[in-house]
Amino acid sequence: MKVVMKFLSELRRRKVIQTLIPFLGVIWLLLQIIAVVTPLLNLSPFVATSLTIFLFACFPVVFYLAWYFDITPQGIKVTAVDYSENPKPLGLKWWLGLSVVMVGSLMLGLHYFDNARTDYVKRNEGLLTSLKASSIAVLPFRDQSPESDQQYLAAGVTEELTSLLGQVAGLQVASASAGFSLARQNLLPVDIARRLKVDTLLSGSIHKVGNQIRLRVELINAEDGMTLWSQSFSRQLSDIFAVETEIARAIANLLQQRYLAAGSLTSLNNTASSDAYMMYLRGREQYRLQTTESIKEARRLFEQALALDPEYAMAYAALADTIISLAEGSASFGVLKADIAATLAEQHLAKALVRAPGLAEAHAIRGFLLFYLQSNYDAALPALDKALSLNPNLAQAHLWRFAALEQLGRRQDAWQALQRAYRLNPVAITHQYNLAVKLAERGELSAAQEQYQQLIADFPESPVGYIGMAKLDNAAALPGNPMLSDAQANALLNTIEPQLLQDIKALGWQYQ
Question: Rounded to an integer, what distance in angstroms lies between the CA atom of residue 44 and that of residue 54?
Fold first, then answer.
């Protein structure tokens, strides 16, 4: 023990710790510079590895020099030898400095060891990060089956990949419905990316013959349209969920520095019955049409999916959502009494959450049910918050949260929720319309005018944008727009109110 105390006392006397602390700081700074410069200069990863090894190899050299030499104003001098037999007591500052050196060395070593391990695993899987990106949109997959009759399956793959990627922390994923809307405008991929403000795009196709499917996927750089990575997957239809999870995990590893191991992403939209899944996808196809008859047909198809697999959690959630859409109300189709619809939907959601407690979509739909059919805004918020904790990229859940917060008078929180919903889906009618309304309320009339103009450009057949512009013109004179009197504005609103409600039903509150 006396020998140890003597050694530690010498470390303090020779000011070794005071030298090592700034040296660790220099190592950290140089390693950050190396990490940034290496990809910019297109240097080999071996260069960064070699420099890192060199810096850590210098550590014992610096220790040795700090032991024998002191840097003084008069220059570098040899440290004097202490011939005293009694070591001096070590103070709190010295022990603190030693702890900093040891912890700092350990953290640096673990950090770069983890990076090296991650790169090694990714290299073995062919998934080395080619473009560090924080946002992505999944474009609608193309149906390349011989009969071109699998569009509903292609759309289902698009939605499922969007949902899986939405679970990845730190990755912003545009709404699938936004991709569907922009694709119908025949825009180029780079133009879609620019509108959605994403760094990358995931594009692909599906080819199905019998029970055999082949998926072809491409990761695209949104800036120049160049393909960063592509892969083909041939599987049985029963393996579709495993393939979708594999693709989502590969994309996350390509875009982020950290590594997602196999099994870290889980699809909760799975079923043991391929027939039940196909029935569910046909129901989703009908649901997207958003007419009274299509919603009724979607309900029938979801019920058939559950008949084939009574444990299919996502089908229960979809059925509940469909029943809410059929309820009486300004944003639904008025086929069912609101109280009956609420009871039925709650029962199906309970079944979904018992089978899959982590199903974000079920929590989101429950939040919508609570505030839309039951006006229970306080209870709706925890359900929506739970959904967004499981998948922060659910654009519609953010919009429903905005609506609930508005009813509770929490204007600033509501504004932030609306902005988030709009970032994830800047195309939906309700997102654009509500954003324009709130911009006008905040006095940002020029920004509101631009938003209404964008809404009109996206949906020229819909009256929603024109109504908003008329109201805005009536509130303030904006250059280039005709003024309307209150009577004229009200007359216009009354004339096309039925079409407005139909548009809200078609592209508004429903889960997307």
Answer: 16
Distance CA 145, CA 58 (A): 61
CATH among 3.40.50.1240, 3.40.50.10610, 3.40.50.10860, 1.10.760.10 for 135-255 = 3.40.50.10610
The token pair that represents 58 in the structure block: 């210098």
pLDDT of residue 31: 74
Q: How far apart are CA 418 and CA 436, in angstroms?
A: 11
Q: Return the pLDDT at 68.
A: 58
DSSP 110: H
Q: What is the identity of the amino acid at 244?
A: E
How far, in Å, CA of 49 to CA of 51, rounded? 6
Q: What is the pLDDT of residue 164?
A: 94
Instruction: Kindly state the tokens that stand for 412.
Output: 């600033």
What global pTM score does this model have?
Answer: 0.73
123: which 2 tokens? 């290299």
Tokens representing residue 465 in the block: 């944008």
According to the model, what pLDDT value does residue 252 have? 87
Pick the closest to residue 91 from 176, 196, 8 (CA basis).
Answer: 8
**What are the boundaries of each domain within the chain?**
2-125, 135-255, 428-512
Contact 202, 217 (CB under 8 A): yes
With a cut of 70, which residues of the chain have pLDDT below it? Answer: 1-17, 20, 38-50, 53, 56-95, 97-98, 100-102, 104-106, 108-131, 259-261, 263, 330-331, 473-512
**Pairing mode of beta strands 75-78, 172-173:** unpaired
Structure tokens at 16: 């070794």
159: nearest Cα among 124, 202, 130, 195: 202
| Strands 172-173 vs 212-221: parallel, antiparallel or unpaired | unpaired
Q: Which residue has the tokens 């809404």?
A: 455
CA distance 427 to 423: 9
Strands 200-209 and 142-143: parallel
Query: Quick one: DSSP state of residue 56?
Result: H
E strand or H helix that includes residue 161: helix 151-166
Helix (H, G, I), strand (E, B) or coil at 90: coil
Residue in the structure block whose two tokens are 């014992």: 60
Q: Cα 479 vs. chain centroid, distance in angstroms?
A: 39
- The 3-state DSSP class for residue 147 equals coil
Q: How confident is the model at residue 33, as a pLDDT?
A: 79
Q: How far apart are CA 351 and CA 254, in angstroms?
A: 36
Strand locations in 26-114 (E):
69-72, 75-78
pLDDT for 328: 85
